[in-house]
Amino acid sequence: MLTFLQQLRVDWPAASERASSHTLRSHALEELTSANDGRTLSPGILGRLCLKELVEEQGRTAGYDPNLDNCLVTEDLLSVLAELQEALWHWPEDSHPGLAGASDTGTGGCLVVHVVSCEEEFQQQKLDLLWQKLVDKAPLRQKHLICGPVKVAGAPGTLMTAPEYYEFRHTQVCKASALKHGGDLAQDPAWTEIFGVLSVATIKFEMLSTAPQSQLFLALADSSISTKGTKSGTFVMYNCARLATLFESYKCSMEQGLYPTFPPVSSLDFSLLHDEGEWLLLFNSILPFPDLLSRTAVLDCTAPGLHIAVRTEMICKFLVQLSMDFSSYYNRVHILGEPRPHLFGQMFVRLQLLRAVREVLHTGLAMLGLPPLSHI
99-100 and 299-300: which strand pairing? Predict the structure, then answer.
């Protein structure tokens, strides 16, 4: 699973010897033994703890399952808990300013968000409480983000591991690129990073375009990867690369003396923007983007209750729609016109508009942990 997280560019520290459950076991064994009252337990079970008392003592019953009571503490459970503790030790204190109300320093004052499937919610609540019970410096604030089930559409009972899912999408990306460019580019080291980013973009947009709490259907049997598909992460990345190519072309032409240097923005005449597609980009994407950020980029961790919500689908749908609007405009309007002085004014205001589009795209992709590509 760690390899899969690394493939998706999720920053998760590798387990070390300190993360071994043996260390946590030695700290917890005395309390577990006393809670066991001398009863004989099955192999692999270290003891039994009453978690309901902990919830009631702290007055935080809102959100916790009412059936939470005794918890059998196993070696496997302690191993998972030790991995969480290890991640907490290695996490930069200022790495996630998007967590509203999570500015406290130290592991005890930080906030932990458990991202867990609905099937595992009950078990994760146990882990939450067990962490507080057994670790002195456990995080005092923990929230749970519950995700709906993931199903493979049209194939009941089909099972696929996370690494298999990544390899499936990666193979599709490589095949699509081979059809577009010719040859087996998967063997070209220069394309290795690009294919990796495109695979991750495909997966993240597929997974995050559905509201996290809803059931997700993965259409694997009949799906294919294409930069022309207007609902995919590769389509967004493709248009991001088109913007990079546009500005690189302007830079090269400027260095050759065909175009002048970009003038101050204050000197631009934006009344030269009169195409409907230009105003569509401005009013549907650029101007609304700060409001989208305010609603999606910051998790309100100060809200009461155990659960927390995110709106990843809003970000994905916004980026796809922006890419569609830009693609339509870019296919129809010639941005870099003839190198004639009387055309430079309109060219510069269009470039300035697309600078804003590029900034919005890059910021939105960064929210999803995706780097922009300069070419595909």
Answer: parallel
DSSP 80-147: HHHHHHHHHHHS-TTS-TTEET----STTTSEEEEEEEGGGHHHHHHHHHHHHHH-TT--SEEEEEEE
Give the confidence band of 375 by pLDDT, cuts at 50, 70, 90.
confident
How far is it, in rounded angstroms, from Cα 242 to Cα 246? 6
CA distances from 130 to 194, 196, 246, 250 (A): 42, 37, 54, 59
Q: Which residues contact 198 (CB under 8 A, 6 or more apart)?
A: 173, 177, 225, 233, 234, 237, 373, 376
Residue with structure tokens 């998760």? 12
Q: How far is CA 133 from CA 37, 55, 138, 213, 254, in A?
A: 18, 10, 8, 29, 65
The pLDDT tens digits for 26-70 are 666 666 655 555 566 676 677 777 787 777 766 655 678 888 887
